[in-house]
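The aim of this short unit is practical: by the end, you should be able to scan a pair of folded records and say something sensible about each. We start with the first protein, listed as its amino acid sequence and then its structure tokens.
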Amino acid sequence: MLAGVVWAGGLGLVINGVLVGVERRLFAWAREPRPETRKPERGRP
């Protein structure tokens, strides 16, 4: 039974990793920082 739980957990992690990778590619435009939300550079007012 423990082996089944370990397999299910590992398979879930693999599937999650694949889905996150696909999501990042599809929605890359949404992850770009907006100019007003960028942190100001150090040394500049």
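Turning to the second protein, read its sequence before its tokens, just as you did above.
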Amino acid sequence: MEIEKEREDDNAKKKYFRDVGLLIVLCMSLYTYCNLKFNSVYYAQHIPHKEGTETDLVMLVKNVGWIYTPKIDNIIYDDGTNDIINTKSKSFLTKSVV
């Protein structure tokens, strides 16, 4: 009887530590994902890059699918090619291939 009680206690402890460990790993993964997603422009600005590269615009075009795009006259967002097109001035921004 006493041995069974000890076994149940050991199993309960193992289950508790497993659940807490899993919760910690999930929280850390969520924190890492959110940090990278919401601060990616900051990281892009502070990593080494070629002189003259506009890292803000590169990140904008790269993440245009995640960004809220309001209805603005003469502006079209093309998610398929990652273009931002100004129909009034016939100019557009596109993803850098270089």
